[in-house]
Design goal:
Blueprint lengths: L54 H34 L4 H16 L19 E2 L7 H5 L3 H9 L1 H5 L11 E7 L3 H17 L4 E7 L3 H19 L3 E6 L4 E3 L5 E4 L4 H14 L16 E5 L3 E3 L33 E4 L11 H5 L10 H7 L2 E8 H21 L5 H12 L5 E3 L3 E2 L20 H9 L11 E3 L3 E4 L2 E4 L14 E2 L12 E2 L7 E2 L2 H29 L9 E3 L10
Parallel strand pairs: 1-5, 2-3, 2-7, 3-4, 9-11, 12-13, 16-19
Antiparallel strand pairs: 5-6, 7-10, 8-13, 9-10, 14-15, 17-18
Length: about 575
Amino acid sequence: MRDNPTLKQRKAPKETSGRSQNGSSSRRYTSRTGRNGSGSANVNANAVNKGGLPAWTWMILGALLLAGFVYVDHMTHESLHRKAQSLNNGSGPAELNNFNRLLDKFTNGNANGNGSGGTNKANGNGGINNSQDNKSKADVHAESAQEVAMHALKSSIYEDTSLIGADGRRSHLIFSTDCSEFQHWQSYLMFHSALKVNQPGSVTRIASGCSDEEAISIRKWHREHITKKMGGRFFLHLTPHFSNVKDADGQTIGDYKFFNKPFGLLHWLEHGIGFDNGDSSGPLKNEDDVVILIDPDMVLLRPITGDFSKERDVVIGKRHLENRRFKVEHGSPFAQKYGFGSQWRTFNLHDIAGADSPAKLVSQKDGGSFYPVGPPYLGTVRDMHSIAEKWTEFVPRVHKEYPYLLAEMFAFCIAAAHLELPHQIVDSLMISNTNGDGPGGEGWPMLDAIPAGELCDFAKKPDHEKYAIPSVIHYCQRYAIQEWFFGKRKMDKQFFTCDSPLMEEPPSDIVPSSDWKMPPGGTRKDLTPIVAKKEGFMVCGVIGALNDAATFYKKHHCPEGEGNMSKTLNLEDATRWDE
């Protein structure tokens, strides 16, 4: 999702928004009036027949008629929500499919609506107001017709007993995106990697800020390309627009797209998981379940679960071994180590978290031992909801003080410290940063056992049973070995299509034969054998994952023999795409 935090900080790049500015409804109503049955509802107030009613009477009747239409539209929404609740109470797949068809018909009729048919909040209260202490609950709880689909679909998570793990709990792997093409291909790759490694439980993309048209399109695409081909446990959850930054007068003064993560998490927890007995003041459903929050620019190499008891599967730094915990439980969240130490303690915690916040009492030692964390984050539903509530409360204040890339990550650290939820920090949940020969707090030591001559082929087809490997590749930087290169911002956004070629793959011996790299537009740089292994694994691993996912796409969506299977796409020459 972002460049690695161990590198120089930089502001989040600006993005243009394709959100609809249209506030009117596209639904047309026709009223049958008059005795001739013509169906015309046009009334000219000045063309009153002799002895007819005065113009003001017609105006009152027209207002009453309009109010009736609004009431019918409201009752249509209420009917859909009641239908969703009925489905949540045990209806079968056939009825669920019928409901989806009904919902599609309804939402297509409101494609340009004012939010009734989608999640267009761009001009509403969907942004972040730095003059306010907290996000309005009305914003977080706002629902659109598209979200009704999630209410209906979520029942299958709890009805499907195959999603229950050995410890009797379900896992919910989630990742937050916007609705851009840039994160669309990343989402497909993430879904496919979860399918490939047989990630247990449900997998959900949280997409924030879609226009009404985008919401309808993305739901249709998800159903055709994800749900129907990968399975019913792969979900899409739509939320309002959260990334606006507003001044004290409520005027939008900027955009911080990473607001989507904390606010999207809270929205999904309260609408996707939902409150027990429907009471928003009570606990969430299935509070013991495990939530795994990752970034969209990650590829799963093996399943992530809440069990870290197998020594072979885990790398933990010496600093984090004291009183080590083994499973995600209430009060015991886990996360990947990130390289910013106790930097979160330098913020104005009095203004951010309050005068009596426990975060102010955390020592320098404990601040670096339990809280310098980032995705993947793991916690129970109960703990993640508590964190999400404080995360969304604190992040506007952190961003006001520090309007840069890592504001939301620092806000997470402060929220966890405020709630006195020290994390068990794990190194091996991720590999990402290839700089230097040291492990850098990541899972690189696991690759030491893989011979250099096998490494590229193994990265393309990872097998945790053969060699222990980290949980995810986080491809947030630029990677190169010799002239072989991968950078996510160079990637063809239309890669998952029938016409796009597959990626050209490095040769099997690329790692042992390489002691240099030269990315596009860069200069040649020497590599140590250890760094060559890191760069080679990232390049080979991401290219291999992309080709596997693209092959799956072409097999299931392209006419036989018409999917482009040539391996000719090389990002070294991809000058036509934005960096």
